[in-house]
């Protein structure tokens, strides 16, 4: 029996998010555990790094599990993929120390929030970006996120129902750039993210872009530590979990 | 009554192609004519520039039609979009001379064929690129298409059933490049394209990439004017009609 770490990507459009739950549409965890159960011929259990919400996508989600059957590591991603629906794709598998836990050992995460600022939406990005047809103040949007870098209490960007005990997170990188023609990306790398934190930051940045707020409003909202002062929760479909970082020997 | 030219984009995944036909799934033309019929309160007819096949996408397809009702030009794309399914998006509308016909007046077309060469497929490109996991000889692929530039008889890259009278086409541009991480694009601008020509060229380029053929085989195939010498017809989903060019005052 070996602890295995897998990197998985998915289009979250048709799922109720990562976490297995009752009385909802299907979840990513459920789909992956179904495959593992098939391999093990008994119920399989996996541990995900990030509980992405319904409609949120992932390029580099990570999960780990005890592999109880003899499948060569280099065949494991394809073994999963051949049993998975085509909107979930495993990208890499490696053996990892028995103590490794994808969630508790994560040092940082990178999220990207995409905004489609074409006058008429980009049909190929309709599931992966939030469409805003009006002119945006891109300079203000870019300047507004500078204040997020560093160690701060992010309570202002925390949804009700967030169970995290620690609202202080360290933001290592916050950038806003044009990814492709009129598709803008808000990219943030942080030590951790509170519930809906990335989407509430994106919502606040969007309100700044629409000139409903000034760029320096972000700093005031952050300092207030009050959710009511921040912007709306931007739609899930614009959000993608890009990468999860672990200690080199983790 | 005015002749109107509209640029439209669509995700062709769920359609039987552009052209209205009986006994198939829905077509793009049908969806657009349904909207026009609603505007006109009588059956509407549109003229498309290119009859894209089932599963082929478009970023810049063009159609024209007689507009018989009073909708301001700047509201016309949105008037269509609000009635269309979300995988068809009109991008631009303009009045054009009464003689204009989107198909007969087209001077050139740009197509792009996408290959996903990631070991495991890019989940976000699964509908827009053809996945090949094995190593490809990218240099050979790139060199192979140079011979296509200029005026040639493209009978070798013409599917059975092609009704075009003129197999000689002028290729203005043929490029092969990495569009994003391991996603390669074969981009061709030509005066016209025979039935399946772009997909048969792509299939031949892919066979060269897989080293089933040498790069200079393309020239021999072209000169032979014989379909049997060319490669397979690459899958429709990798193909996107990017742009249609008209004379400046067309």
TrEMBL record, chains A, B:
Catalytic center residues: 53 (nucleophile)
Q: Which Pfam families match?
A: PseudoU_synth_1
InterPro entries, alphabetically?
PsdUridine_synth_cat_dom_sf, PsdUridine_synth_TruA, PsdUridine_synth_TruA_a/b_dom, PsdUridine_synth_TruA_C, TruA/RsuA/RluB/E/F_N
Which residues are recorded as binding substrate? 111
Looking at the record, the residues that make up the Pseudouridine synthase I TruA alpha/beta domain are 7-105, 148-247
Which GO terms are recorded in the biological process aspect for this UniProt protein? tRNA pseudouridine synthesis
The lineage's top-level taxon is: Bacteria
Q: Which keywords label this protein?
A: Isomerase, tRNA processing
Concerning its family, UniProt says: Belongs to the tRNA pseudouridine synthase TruA family.
Q: What is this protein called?
A: tRNA pseudouridine synthase A
Q: Which organism is it from?
A: Halonatronomonas betaini
The uppermost taxa in this organism's lineage are:
Bacteria, Bacillati, Bacillota, Clostridia, Halanaerobiales
